[in-house]
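Sample entry was shown:

___
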Amino acid sequence: MHHPMITLWTIADPRKLTDEVLDELRVQTDVTNQLDCLSEVIEDIGCLVGSDEAAGNFANKDDFPQLMFSLSSTISNLSAMAWVGNEARSIIQDRAKNGGMKS
């Protein structure tokens, strides 16, 4: 199953988008900062769980699966954003090689 962002990208016919729109998508889909934040969150969770002797972290049986589903969704979203950004970058590069946008 494709991520909805990738489906929308395909439907939008990205080759018809202007360089300005593609560049904005390329820049906005830079996932580096978001991955850094996700890394910190996961590290903090590891510390929390590692130091839990009886504090009750993840005491509810639904807490951990909910966290994992949330992390999975975040990673899927970041992956789709990176994919769209790479596709936009590729189109811009192709246009630069071929003399601009074709009408």
In short: The mean pLDDT is 84. The first helix runs from residue 4 to 11. Residues 17-29+70-89 form one domain.
